């Protein structure tokens, strides 16, 4: 069975004026896909294509105009919002901005546990320490503040916050964009290990085609809010059908060849 199944999801962003009718400024969808346990779906497109908006729809930060989202065959709606909070978690693009500088890392990780579980203080602390170790940090990091961490460690805290409720699906919105290449490689390997160990489904939003090709099983290409191509990763990269997809792949290949020639 699919972990998550999205059916014809759409969204319209409108502007309102006192003297005129509402005007649609961005139209997303329809978007449909499914993700199974241990599977990674990559969402690819240029800036402002609708990738991050789709992520917000999946985790409930925005409300779709139409369409349905199912978790393990159960439709997500207002009556079971807690299911979404537990089962779909998000890693935001800029981990530095998403971490409150005035709170210890332990307090940041404890917040979703206080809001979404009935664990007592000792149980919460034990789970926080376990999750920190799971992402390659020490239990003592719970007493640290954001400014005391490197970029790579901040990203691990963002991952720990996503994992701490034991989700089934993680939506990662450009999680490696701010990391240098060596740290990025470590973060990618950590994500892949956790996916293997925990059977997670990943929805990976990125414009980095090198990482997309390395970690994803399936790819959806979005342009101006519309899905223009989707399929298995190997098929998309080796036999793209759409001119826009071909352009993205050619640009990536040119960049890779240019880096190789500089070595």
UniProtKB/TrEMBL annotation:
Source taxon at top rank: Bacteria
Q: Tell me which UniProt keywords the record has, alphabetically.
A: ATP-binding, Nucleotide-binding, Transport
Q: Which GO terms describe its biological process?
A: transmembrane transport
Domain ABC transporter, by residue range, is: 9-249
Family matches, as InterPro entries: AAA+_ATPase (IPR003593), ABC_transp_ATP-bind (IPR050319), ABC_transporter-like_ATP-bd (IPR003439), P-loop_NTPase (IPR027417)
Signal peptide range in chain numbering: none
Specify whether Nucleotide-binding is a keyword of the entry.
yes
Checking Pfam families in the record gives: ABC_tran
Q: Which GO terms describe its molecular function?
A: ATP binding; ATP hydrolysis activity
Q: Provide the family line.
A: Belongs to the ABC transporter superfamily.
Protein name as it appears in the record: ABC transporter-like protein
């Amino acid at each position: 069975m699919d972990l998550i199944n999205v059916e014809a999801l759409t969204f319209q962003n409108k502007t309102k004026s006192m003297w005129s009718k509402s005007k649609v400024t961005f139209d997303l969808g329809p978007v449909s896909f499914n993700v199974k346990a241990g599977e990674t779906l990559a969402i690819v497109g240029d800036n402002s294509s609708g990738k991050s908006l789709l992520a917000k729809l999946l985790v409930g930060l925005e409300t779709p105009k139409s369409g349905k989202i199912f978790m393990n065959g159960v439709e997500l709606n207002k009556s079971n919002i807690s299911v979404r909070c537990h089962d779909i978690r998000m890693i935001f693009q800029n981990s530095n901005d998403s971490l409150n500088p005035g709170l210890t890392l332990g307090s940041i990780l404890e917040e979703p546990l206080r809001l979404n579980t009935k664990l007592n203080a000792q149980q919460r602390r034990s789970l926080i320490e376990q999750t920190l170790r799971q992402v390659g940090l020490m239990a003592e990091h719970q007493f640290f503040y954001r400014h005391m961490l490197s970029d790579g460690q901040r990203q691990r805290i963002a991952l720990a916050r996503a994992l701490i409720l034991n989700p089934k699906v993680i939506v990662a919105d450009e999680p490696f964009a701010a990391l240098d290449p060596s740290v990025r490689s470590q973060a990618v390997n950590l994500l892949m290990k956790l996916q293997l160990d925990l059977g997670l489904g990943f929805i990976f939003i990125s414009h980095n085609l090198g990482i997309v090709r390395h970690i994803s099983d399936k790819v959806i290409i979005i342009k101006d809010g519309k899905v223009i191509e989707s399929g298995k990763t190997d098929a998309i990269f080796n036999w793209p059908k759409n001119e826009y997809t071909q352009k993205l792949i050619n640009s990536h290949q040119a960049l890779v060849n240019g880096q190789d020639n500089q070595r």
